[in-house]
């Protein structure tokens, strides 16, 4: 999917995370001349340095909240992927201003630094929680999208092409529900399900990386790219995992947590009225009108009435066997299921 990248230079903010590590490997494989990782945690960088052992990867300690640290890392780079964020819904509810500082002001720093040093393309990673947001994480990611779009709308001669991508839950990402449920099952406990009827979109890490690559190759300034995905209920997810590990499908119900929604929306009906359907992806272009709306009178109004939002309650619903098959495509899950099965055989 990626074109040849020899002599091309990349920066990934939050580059030690699940997305960042996968993207770094893809860029190295595609021949990138240099990949910089900007992040706060020196021990994660050190572990990655030892694991990769590749001198085309350079590590920058810094924080997107600190403009100078972003500027230093962005200097000389042609392409930037902005993945650094505060992402946990409940913790952002308790510390909303921290989410504003990282997700909104930090993202604005990234946009400004890229423009200042003449980065060619910047792709910012957003989430379905940014659509009709009810929690601080989603609200701040929605504002991040607005910052990115305003950059494109307000700067006709912008040097940096800025696009966003939006996706749902990445299966087995750090701190997410799938490794948690597996851990609970392996310890002999019951998965703690918030609400069995709650639905989420499911996407693999390679699919999320593919979406970013698509935006990187095809995006126009201000675009938001969305990857279409199937969804499942959390009750079915817990059941599928219990089945895979050969334990009775039972769980404890916790109740919905701070800031959570029963379902997530990947694209609103307002966006779908303008979106371009690209098969696996949707492209939502920026509304590039200025504030003189009367100038656009003849373009008329777009009809939103017949459209429905694209959300995880009306997306294709995966059955329990389908979830089991999907989970077994994840190397981490496969390895844990096989290890558990082998342990049963030897006892
Ligand atoms: O003990 C638990 C923890 C979570 N859940 C449920 O599992 C689902 C997924 O939870 P989790 O894996 O914590 O993800 P989300 O809170 O949905 O948020 C994730 O998915 C987003 C995309 O929607 C990303 O933007 C976020 O960074 C990422 O944390 C939700 O319905 C939770 O209610 C449980 O049932 N039990």
Keywords:
nine-stranded mixed β-sheet; binds uridine-5'-diphosphate-glucose; 16 strands; alpha/beta; 347 residues; 41% helix
Question: Secondary-structure blueprint of this entry?
Answer:
Blueprint: E1 9-13, H1 18-29, E2 34-39, H2 42-52, E3 57-61, H3 67-74, E4 79-82, H4 89-94, H5 96-117, E5 121-127, H6 136-154, E6 161-167, E7 169-170, H7 177-186, E8 192-193, E9 199-203, H8 205-218, E10 224-227, E11 231-233, H9 234-244, E12 252-253, E13 265-267, H10 269-272, E14 276-277, E15 281-284, E16 310-311, H11 320-328, H12 331-346
Parallel strand pairs: 1-2, 1-4, 2-3, 4-5, 5-6, 6-10, 7-9, 8-12
Antiparallel strand pairs: 9-11, 10-15, 13-16, 14-15
Helix pairs in contact: 1-8, 3-5, 5-6, 7-9, 9-11
């Amino acid at each position: 999917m990626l074109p040849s990248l020899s002599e091309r230079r990349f920066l990934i903010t939050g580059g030690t995370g699940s997305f960042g590590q996968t993207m770094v490997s893809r860029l190295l494989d595609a021949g990138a001349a240099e990949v910089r990782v900007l992040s706060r945690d020196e021990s994660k960088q050190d572990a990655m340095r030892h694991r990769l052992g590749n001198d085309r990867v350079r590590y920058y300690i810094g924080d997107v909240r600190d403009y100078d640290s972003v500027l230093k890392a962005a200097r000389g780079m042609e392409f930037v992927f902005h993945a650094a964020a505060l992402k946990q819904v409940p913790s952002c509810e308790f510390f909303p201003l921290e989410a504003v500082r990282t997700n909104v002001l930090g993202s604005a720093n990234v946009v400004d630094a890229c423009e200042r040093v003449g980065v060619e393309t910047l792709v910012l990673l957003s989430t379905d929680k940014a659509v009709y947001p009810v929690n601080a994480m989603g609200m701040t990611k929605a504002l991040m999208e607005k910052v990115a779009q305003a950059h494109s709308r307000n700067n006709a001669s912008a040097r940096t092409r800025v696009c966003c991508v939006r996706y749902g839950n990445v299966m087995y990402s750090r701190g997410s529900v799938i490794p948690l449920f597996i851990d609970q099952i392996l310890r002999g406990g019951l998965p703690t399900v918030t609400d069995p009827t709650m639905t989420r979109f499911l996407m693999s890490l390679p699919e999320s990386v593919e979406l970013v690559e698509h935006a990187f190759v095809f995006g126009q300034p201000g675009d938001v790219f969305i990857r279409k995905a199937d969804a499942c209920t959390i009750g079915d997810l817990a059941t599928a995992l219990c089945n895979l590990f050969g334990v009775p499908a039972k769980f404890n119900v916790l109740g919905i947590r701070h800031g959570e929604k029963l379902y997530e929306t990947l694209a609103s009906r307002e966006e779908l009225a303008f979106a371009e359907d690209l098969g696996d992806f949707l492209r939502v272009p920026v509304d590039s009108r200025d504030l003189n709306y009367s100038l656009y009178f003849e373009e008329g109004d777009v009809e939103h009435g017949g459209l429905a939002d694209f959300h995880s309650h009306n997306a294709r619903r995966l059955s329990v066997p389908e979830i089991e098959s999907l989970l077994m495509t994840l190397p981490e899950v496969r390895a844990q299921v096989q290890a558990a099965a082998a342990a049963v055989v030897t006892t």
